Amino acid sequence: MDIGKPVSFFCKIYANPPCSNVVWKKYEDGQYTTIQIDCKDCSQTENFTSHLKLDTFMESDSGYYLCYATNIVGTSKSKCISLSERTYAPIIKVDVDDNYCFKKIDEDVSIPYTIYANPPCTSVLWKQKNEDGNIKKIYPREIAFYQRKKITGSFALVKLTERQSGYYVCVATNKEGTTESRCVYLYVTKPDNAEDDVFSSDEENSTVGTLPYTGRRPRYYSCPSNFTIDYQPSKRRRRRLS
Question: Where's the Ig-like domain (predicted)?
Fold first, then answer.
């Protein structure tokens, strides 16, 4: 059962003569606690349905519930109903638009994330897969053993380098299993004051043409995930002056 949700039980009772009372009890840690008593309604009919409603389920409501019905012949009890909080593997939400993050060298980056887990996570870590296909585990300072069912944090990297470009994924584990978040691609570029790389090639070996100089810096856009580049630019030839 999810915390904060309403829950309802019912018990059908057949008795002749009718019951004098119907009692709901909760059993936990070796003790019975009376939750609800029905007296008037059940005494009017031989067939009676008793309802137990909890408007908002809380963790303290977990336990075993039984229904007791009594008439002049005796007392009977229902089967035991177990009520407990639902358990599930971690659910990870990463707050990055379009799965892309663009930063420049020496800048810092922060990727917000939220994890829901019951029972709480035993480990949370981030993995990086760079452009060479190598996978590296990263352990930020704030990540440790958690006792909370909801974790809100931010994965931070400071003074970025080009080597830190690549795919990043959050991995969370609890007793129910291990979950990975969606991938976030971090693209680290040179600062604005860096010199532009100049590319050229023979027309026979390349489909890349030259554009007239406009005085503005070119704009770069991300490529689709299945896009590959086979073209390797050659160095600019220097013309000999005669």
Answer: 1-82
Q: Are residues 21 and 69 part of one domain? A: yes
Task: Check: CB of residue 8 under 8 Å from CB of residue 53.
Answer: yes
Total domains in the chain come to 2
**pTM for this model (two decimals):** 0.58
Side-chain half-sphere exposure of 116, counting CA atoms within 13 A: 7
Q: Is residue 240 part of a domain?
A: no
CA distances from 100 to 20, 160, 187, 215 (A): 68, 16, 8, 28
How far apart, in Å, do the first and last CA atoms of the chain sit?
A: 87
What span, in angstroms and rounded, lies between the C-alpha atoms of 7 and 16? 30
Q: Let me know if 70 is exposed, middle or buried by CB neighbors in 10 A (0-12, 13-18, 19+).
A: middle
Helices (H) and strands (E) in the chain, counts: 0, 16
Each residue's pLDDT tens digit, 58-89: 888 889 999 999 999 999 999 999 988 888 99
**How many C-beta atoms surround the C-beta of residue 65 within 10 A?**
22
Give φ, ψ of 164 to 5 degrees: -85, 0
